[in-house]
Design goal:
Two copies of one chain form a homodimer. The first copy, chain A, is α/β, with parallel strands linked by helices. Helices cover about 30% and strands about 25% of the residues of chain A. Chain A starts with a helix and ends with a helix. Chains A and B meet through helix 1, helix 2, helix 8, strand 16 and strand 17 of A and helix 1, helix 2, helix 8, strand 16 and strand 17 of B.
């Protein structure tokens, strides 16, 4: 690589690491990260990233190599991510909800050659490593490196003794930055290849659309191993040079106190977290007036919840809708629509073109229901080593979301269901979400409900509700079915109601319908 | 090109044309362009662009071909630019201040195969074409096509009979979108190759930094053939889906009336235009309260002017600093600094890293003066067919601006002078701008002054001031020199003062020092 070629790359490239470099040059003394008692200015954060990047290079890691990252939310998580960006490495965040077999699969599939890990997760990673051969270095974020294991080193060692000069490596605009493995609803998770330009542009779009500002004070408490917290939130905050308060997990009391004490301006949480804060006894006594923006993700909020949120938090609410493959935000459900179009998922962001596609690959007119498809420079490169899944996802010149929805006359997108969660019963297609809404309406004592199609000799799939009663209450399936029948078409009414204590959820709180389906697969056969 | 390859490009690419497509899909009925009595929604604007794009394709234009555009500000200008973007053509805007020889040089150098032209400029283009061979099609925006010239066709014909479907061509992220020829201070102008990613990202940055919104109402009155009006202003407005009121030129009375009648929220003008509006008799009687942002470019405003602007226009003022090669904005002099750091050029925008470089290629510390250099994905691809100039501009892994400046302790950039305008006199380097400031201070009756170095047998270059007295006043060179001597070091004092009626300016109002230097080259020899 000639000096000229390196020089031109450094001048021109789109690189997520460069966005940190620029913030550090522009606002060196501004507060970047707060992690417990530790506070880092942009100068310190960038310098740390540069030193870790040089340290990883010293350990032999080279552009294109994959580095797995098994850690809860902490400063080191973001330092590792940006060090990868500046060195041209691919970061592979490990979902901390995974078991040994999933971790093992991902380490193997991504051909990770190094792992950065917190002590807490070291045993699981060690177990997973038994089945893989590629990993040669493990860097321990916390805890002491006391074993004689030559592959194990302290994360701190990467920075110590390294210069804090900017790493200068040739990295293409579309070079991979992350492999994010989607929580598998099929047998094996798929590795979503995220690239610098896609993630940089999505961050720009998000910062522009939700008006992120350099004087904003964000809380990062959703798992950083997920794209929403990592890319749409942290990378956009760092791009504009704002401050991030890192929390390991959501805690209603802590968060309410933090908003008051640190004059937090932006939070990002799940609907159930807002619900929990609203119910917390501290909510009335905390000063929440610093909040400008409240983002939420995963699902629309029911009307009573969003009304209460707007009243109590008194700031602008945005629902982020999208998926890992889109880096991830595709539509924003905006403050002005929260109460007029409650239940919708919003309008496309500036960087994304969204359309509804029919089964023949043609685009459908406004009002028609079909698969939501996208075009956007934010789109993933591909599924790693999976040309079949990639070709399927990119068929007909659009990215296929796997979501079903429609645009209304106001140009607002409504999400109907995941393709795979639509129930095919007696020749009809039924949206599981429509049935779920009817259940909540039929009996307010239902705390949680999920509706799936289960194998059935007559109906092909039988609509089945799995419900959790509110604590201290009971559910009579027959009575509930009668009530539901009065709200929706008879053929959409569940054939059976299964009462359970809890529903399986992903680490982001999403109900795992695939696990529900597997667990009760023989429900009708058994009968 | 396989269907799959086209499909993937359409999904992933960064393309300026796609930003219009997305705005038209998101806000079809929103007002996009107003040009006199003509009003176009985003649906209509996009449809027109698509039809023109298909029409150009029908005429044989293909990806990579260059199309010259000789037109004043009008809707057709933007339609042509976006039609080029969607077809993969390179748009070559013709500076309407150029003579036949410059137009001829640019048509030839860019190998333009088609020209879109307004009737007013057709004779000049025809004259210029005598010396070029590449142009095969001329499309006339206005006026009737009555000649028997087979190369001449009506611009309207491009759209008529074309479908309004989205053109689907493979266009790379870094494919060229424009050749912008810089007004030559050397013998031949250089063609700055702008690419889709650079221009798209600069537009995103501008929209983010100056908080462009979809409900903004912009006035485009600076020449669209310049990068500042075209890229940082129009492309960013179209990206967010705002409205652009197109004006052919600046007229203080018209603009003040337009701000009131159309509730304009954003204007972009030169300092002298703000000055003219402030002096206009209508300024007190017009309602200017709709203004949110006032952008200006070319030069900092003197303190009395910016103070008066803030008072009268009562909105946020931003100075855009940069150059065509950077697409163009590199720093923004922000509202909060206008009065505290009057005279500075601001802080780098989010997408740009700015530094000061010494003559040895090393970066200099804060406070030191040297060449302003940049790294940014907004940087041009290269100078067209000019590898020497490109290599020089990209030396040491930074883009060389040719500007001299320094950062102060607050991280704010101060522009000292253009490299080539620094005067080398008697072994010393003197900033021409410093001398100009002293002249204005020494005699308030000086309307305009420019300072250049002219060939001199003893001083190598002799500092020389060329001044225009305010109307009805006289200037005595000897007295003026004495007054200047009391303000600056003796060696910085002009050796001569030349009094003229007017100074030569570019179409953006910049004083052409190169023309001044040529005109008076023999001033000292003659003596």
């Amino acid at each position: 690589m000639s000096t000229t070629e390196i020089g031109r790359n450094l001048i021109h490239r789109i690189n997520v690491g460069d966005s940190l470099t620029r913030s550090a040059w522009r606002r060196p003394e501004a507060l970047a990260l707060v992690d417990g008692d530790r506070r880092f200015t942009y100068r310190e954060f960038n310098s740390w990233v540069n030193r870790v990047s040089h340290g990883l290079h010293r350990h032999g890691l080279r552009s294109g190599d994959a580095l797995a990252l098994a850690s809860g939310n902490c400063a080191e998580f973001l330092v590792t991510y940006y060090a990868c960006a500046k060195l041209g490495l691919v970061c592979v965040p490990i979902n901390l909800g995974w078991g040994t077999s999933e971790i093992s699969y991902v380490l193997d599939h991504s051909a990770a050659t190094a792992v950065v890990v917190e002590n807490e997760f070291l045993p699981r990673v060690h177990d997973a490593l038994a089945a893989t051969v590629s990993v040669v270095d493990i860097f321990l974020i916390d805890g002491e490196v006391t074993t004689g294991d030559p592959t194990l080193a302290a994360f701190a060692e990467l920075a110590s003794g390294s210069p804090d000069s900017e790493p200068e490596h040739v990295i293409a605009d579309r070079a991979p930055l992350s492999y994010l493995y989607t929580s598998g609803t099929t047998s094996f998770p798929k590795g979503v290849v995220g690239n610098h330009a896609a993630i940089y542009l999505e961050s720009m779009t998000m910062a522009l659309e939700a008006q992120f500002r350099e004087d904003d004070r964000f809380v990062a408490m959703m798992p950083m191993f997920h794209t929403a917290q990592l890319n749409t939130h942290c990378t956009a905050a760092i791009l504009v040079g704002a401050t991030i308060f890192i929390e390991r997990r959501f805690d209603a009391r802590r968060l309410l106190a933090l908003i008051e004490s640190e004059r937090i301006t932006q939070i990002f949480a799940l609907p159930m977290m807002y619900s929990e804060m609203l119910e917390h006894s501290d909510v009335g006594s905390r000063d929440l007036s610093s909040l400008r923006r409240a983002l939420y993700a995963m699902a629309p909020m029911p009307r009573h919840l969003i009304e209460r949120c707007i009243e109590v938090f008194a700031c602008d609410f945005y629902l982020l809708f999208g998926q890992t493959e889109m880096s991830p935000t595709t539509t924003l459900f905006r403050p002005e629509h929260q109460l007029t179009h409650t239940g919708a998922v919003g309008t496309p962001v500036i960087g994304v073109q969204a359309a509804i596609m029919g089964q023949d690959g043609g685009l459908l007119p406004t009002g028609d229901e079909g698969e939501i498809v996208y075009r956007s420079p934010h789109t993933m490169t591909e599924y790693l080593d999976n040309p079949e899944a990639t070709a399927e996802a990119f068929d007909h010149g659009w990215f296929h979301s796997g979501d079903i929805g429609r645009f209304d006359d106001d140009g607002i997108l409504w999400f109907t269901d995941r393709f795979k969660d639509v129930i095919k019963t007696g020749g009809e297609n039924v949206s599981s979400l429509e049935v779920e809404r009817a259940i909540y309406q039929a009996d307010p004592r239902i705390a949680e409900a999920t509706v799936v199609g289960l194998p059935h000799h007559r109906w092909s799939e039988a609509i089945t509700a799995v419900v959790v009663p509110a604590s201290g209450t009971m559910v009579d399936p027959a009575t509930l079915i009668d009530k539901i029948k009065q709200l929706i078409d008879p053929y959409k009414t569940p054939k059976a109601i299964i009462v359970v204590d809890a529903l399986p959820r992903t680490s982001t709180g999403k109900i795992q319908k695939n696990v529900v389906r597997e667990r009760f697969a023989e429900h009708y056969e058994r009968r």
